[in-house]
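The following record pairs a protein chain with its ligand, pyridoxal-5'-phosphate.
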Amino acid sequence: MSTLEQRIADNVARVRQTIADAAARSGRRAEDVTLVAVSKYVGQAEIEALLAAGCYDLGESRPQDLWHKAEQFADRPVRWHMIGHLQRNKARRTLPLVTLLHAGDSWRLLEAAAQHLQAGGQMLDVLIEVNVSGDATKTGLDSDEIEPLLPQIARLPSLRVCGLMAMARWGGTLDEARGDFVRLRNLRDRLAECCPPEIALTHLSMGMSGDFEVAIEEGATLVRVGSALFEGAEP
Ligand SMILES: *Cc1c(COP(=O)(O)O)cnc(C)c1O
């Protein structure tokens, strides 16, 4: 094994152990939490190392990078997660490559995505992104915008809405991050009670390198971890 491969394998093992411990603290199993390895910072060699370490759920935040990497790894069983904002004019090319769209961040995007998916005969799992912290710089729907949209969203063809996604406030403490994650979980619990049957709010995508432990304690089912996987393996 090269040093790069070894470092990344060690980092993956450490992150997986942290995930398992945090899942146990929240009364769940390690398998109940999916590690989405965010590959947006890295190239082919690091991605090869992630695959060698058993990480096949990979997250990208820019559509062009996702297109490029999906082509590079077309012969490997990678599940690509689109974790960043998807401009509507990039949806047609991006959606067929993706396993889960985390950033369903506007009605207009969801509507456009449904059109493209229906035309392509594809079903896709989608999360609704929520601006839980109220940061002006953050994307996502405001918490109180979602409930009135649910009936409309439920009628969109070809989309399976299966949960919510959020980022903790920028530059906040761990306690503030926990508060943001609790807000997302509470919102999910509240919406689940009035949700049309077409929509299941099973998943919570929350937690990044600095706060994924806390996110799992508060119920994350998907964590999006980038930099912690590449420590000591910077290009
Ligand atoms: C980059 C990114 C991550 C990963 O961030 P790290 O702090 O490097 O783990 C997670 N989620 C989103 C939406 C991102 O853009």
